[in-house]
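Final paragraph of the annual report: two paired records, presented back to back.
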Amino acid sequence: MPRLALRHRRPAASTPATLGAVTLGLAAGAAVGFLLSELFAGTAKRLLGEAAKPAPDQGSVAEIVHDALSVLENDLQLRECHLDVVPVRRFAIEIHGWVPDRPSRLRAQRLVAAAVAPAEVINCVLVRGEDDLAFDLIDDSDALHA
C-alpha cells in the first residue's frame, strides 16, 4: 500500500513591507470611497426622491414665524381662534391652539404650509368637541377626596 506523506508549510512571517502595503491599500480605498460619496451624494438623493433642503436664502426662523402668523391673522375664520406658531428648528414650525372643527384645522395647516413653503409645518391644532373629550374622562375629584 502506498504511503502518503503530507508536509505543512509554515506561514510566511509578516514583513514590514507587507504591512505597509496593506495599510496603504486601506487608506487609499477609504480616501477614494470618501471622494466618490461626496461627488455622488446629491445625485443619489435626487434618484431616491429625497426632499431637497430649503435654500439658505429662504429666510430666518423669525421671518417664517412672522409669515405664518400674518397668514393666520389675515384669514377671517381663523383670526378668532388665536392660533400660535412656535419655531421647532430651522425651517420647521408648529401650529398650536384650538379650532371649532376639523376643516378649520386643515385650513390652518394648508394656509401656513403655502405661506412658508418649503419649511416644514407640524399641525398641533386641537379640535373642540373632539380632542377635549379625552381630558374629561379623567376625574380627579374622587382621588382628592379619598
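The closing record of the year follows.
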Amino acid sequence: MNEAGTKWFDDLKSHVSECRRHRSFACRDSLSLVEEMQCRIIGGSLIGWLNTYGPRLLQERSVLAAHQGWEKEPFVIFTSEEAGLIAANEILAGSISTMAFMYADEFSSWATSHPDIDFRWHVHTWSFFAALDAVTLQRAARYPLLEGENYWLHREGTVCGPLFGRGGDHLWKWNGEVPMLLEECFNQWSS
C-alpha cells in the first residue's frame, strides 16, 4: 500500500475510534429477539463474505488493479446497522488490520471529506435489513404470510471500483420467533 492510501486508512480508523467514543455499540445481551436474529444473519453473511465471496471479488479486482491505478490489496470497509456491527465486532475485533466497520452514515460523512471515488485504496461492503418498497412487497406476495408474520429484506453488496460491484437482497419471513429464508437473491444487481 502506498503512503497516501495508508494515511487515508489511518485517518479512517481514527474517525471510527472517535465515532465509537460518541456512539458505542450496545451489548449483545441487550438486543431484542428481532435484533439478535438479524445479528446472526448479518454475522453469517459477513463470515461468508470473508471466506468465499469477498476473496473472489478481491481476486477479480487485483486483475484490474494495474490498469485502473488501484492498490492490489485494498482496505475493506464494512457498513451495517447496530445488530450487524455487533456481529462484526465479535467476528473482526483485532483480527484483520486492513478492515474497518462502522455505521453507513459514519462512513459516508467521512468519505465526503476524504474521497476515494476511484476506489484506489478501498472496497465497500455492506449488510443490513431494510423495509420493502411497494414493488418488492408486491413481488414478495408470492410467498403468502400467515397472521402475525412479516417480511424482512436483507440487503448486501460490495463495490470494488467505479462500475464494479455486486449485490443482492434476500427475502425472509419472521413469525415472531424464528426467521425463515424465503428466497436468496430475491433481487440482485451487478455492474
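The helical segments are 3-22, 33-68, 82-92, 104-113, 134-140. This concludes the annual technical report; the extension proposal builds directly on these records.
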